[in-house]
Amino acid sequence: MPTKIEKDSITGQETTGHEWDGLKELNTPLPKWWLYTFYATILFAAVWVVLYPAIPVQGWTGLTGWTARGALPAQMDAERARQAPMLARLREVSAEQIAADPELRGFALAGGRVGFANNCAGCHGAGGQGASGGFPSLADDDWLWGGSFEAIHTTISHGVRAGESDEERGIAMPAFLATGMLTQAQINDTADFVLSLSGRSADPAAVTRGRELYAENCASCHGDGGEGNRDMGAPRLNDQIWLYGGDRASVVRSIAYSRAGVMPAWRGRLDPAMINMITVYVHALGGGE
Amino acid sequence: MNQIAPERPKVDKKPEPSLYASHQKVQPRAVKGRVRNIKWAVLVVLLALYYVVPWFRWDRGPGVPDQAVLVDISHARLFFLWIELWPQEVYFLTGALVLGAIGLFAVTSLYGRLWCGFTCPQTVWTDLFMWVERRIEGDRNARIKLDQGAKDGRWWKLKLSKHAAWLFIAMATGGAWIMYFNDAPTVTWAMLTGQASLTVYGFFALFTATTYVLAGAAREQVCTYMCPWPRFQGAMLDDNSLVVTYRDWRGEPRGKPDAAHGDCVDCKACVHVCPTGIDIRDGQQLECIGCGLCVDACDDVMAKLGRDKGLIAFETLKNLAASQAAVAGMAPGPARNAAGMAARVPQKKIRPRTLIYAGVIMGVVALMLGAWMLRATLTLSVERDRAPLFVQLSDGGIRNGYTLKLANKTRGEDLHLALVLDGPQGLSLTVQDAMEDAAGRPILTTRDDGITQWRALVTAPPGLRLRDSTPITFRLVDGSGRTLVTQHSAFMGPRR
Question: How far apart are CA A10 and CA B14, in angstroms?
Answer without folding.
Answer: 9
